[in-house]
């Protein structure tokens, strides 16, 4: 399965920008919709299942 831009963004958000870090991560495939050329289109979407490997970013709102 090739990844569309939407699924690449989901994986990058969950596991980082380096696609080598996505290897061996578990995802769920779901039927959903994406907008293509201004129209909704059915698409297979990825939903991350494995825990995120990214470190949480701290901000002023994050409790310590």
Q: Indicate the proportion of strand residues.
A: 25-35%
The percentage helix is 10-25%
Order of helices and strands: HEE
Number of helices: 1
Identify the strand order in the major beta sheet. 1-2
- Rg calc: 14 Å
- How would you classify the helix and strand content by structural class? alpha+beta
Mean of all residue-level pLDDT scores: 86
Largest sheet: 2 strands, antiparallel
Distance between the termini: 41 Å
Low-confidence stretches: none
Shape: elongated
The strand count comes to 2
Q: Nutshell version of this structure?
A:
This protein has 64 residues and is of the alpha+beta class. The chain has one helix at 5-15, and strands at residues 27-36, 39-48. It has a two-stranded antiparallel sheet.
Could you walk me through the main structural features you see in this protein, from its secondary elements to its overall organization?
The structure is a single chain. With 64 residues, the protein is α+β, with helices and mostly antiparallel strands. The chain has a domain at 5-48. It is built from one helix and two strands; from the N terminus they run αββ. It has a two-stranded antiparallel ribbon with strand order 1-2. A hairpin with a 2-residue loop joins strand 1 and strand 2. The termini are far apart. The model has no long low-confidence stretch (mean pLDDT 86).
């Amino acid at each position: 399965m090739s990844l569309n831009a939407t699924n690449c963004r989901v994986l990058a958000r969950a596991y980082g920008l380096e696609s080598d870090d996505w290897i061996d991560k578990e995802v769920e495939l779901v039927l959903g919709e994406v907008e293509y050329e201004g129209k909704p289109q059915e698409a297979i979407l990825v939903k991350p299942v494995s825990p995120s490997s990214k470190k949480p970013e701290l901000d002023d709102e994050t409790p310590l």
